[in-house]
Amino acid sequence: MMLASLGILMGCSDDSGDPAALPTATITVTETAPVIEPEVEPTPSEDADPYAPNVGERALKIGDTRVGQAIRTTLKGVKYPYPPDYAREPDAGNDFVGLELEQCFDKDAQVDPEYPDTTTYNGDWVILDPQGFEYGGDGSSWSDWPSPKFPESVTLNPGRCYKGWVSLQAPKGTKIASVVWRPGGTETAEWLPKG
Q1: Could you give the domains of the chain?
Q2: How far apart are alpha carbons 185 and 150 in whole angstroms?
Q3: CA proximity to 1, closest of 35, 24, 29, 28
């Protein structure tokens, strides 16, 4: 970049005293070194990765779908307290929390026969209260309750959706702030109540 400073000094006469003398001008040109701006490094953003975990500011609302690379998981609803059934009572001081789930496996998904993807189960889920306390599934559930039962830990087949309910337990009167899905211990998605 070139900057020019122009200074004009004009006189009405020269030292000779001749009134016809031409005015004189002085021009000074200065060059300034160019300013080099440092290149701004792009900051990585979770939004750049469409499969980044849906937690915190990216949390979903109940009813929204978590889109993974091959699996779409939707927490369709939460029912609390979920009614007990014959011979199925929560632990003393607790109520059941019912989670209505849907998982769909993309029709073009690649299947590894040695390590096939499986549906979620109640041990992958926790509810959080406003103070951050967690109440989760214990990994065991009944094969026929709640009904209709979500098919837990079943091998996913491309193009198929799996639907139903799983149950967790929480102390009576717990206020649910969010529901978190942690398949294999990895916090993958969080759903917030609507409203």
Answers
A1: 52-192 (2.60.40.1240)
A2: 20
A3: 35
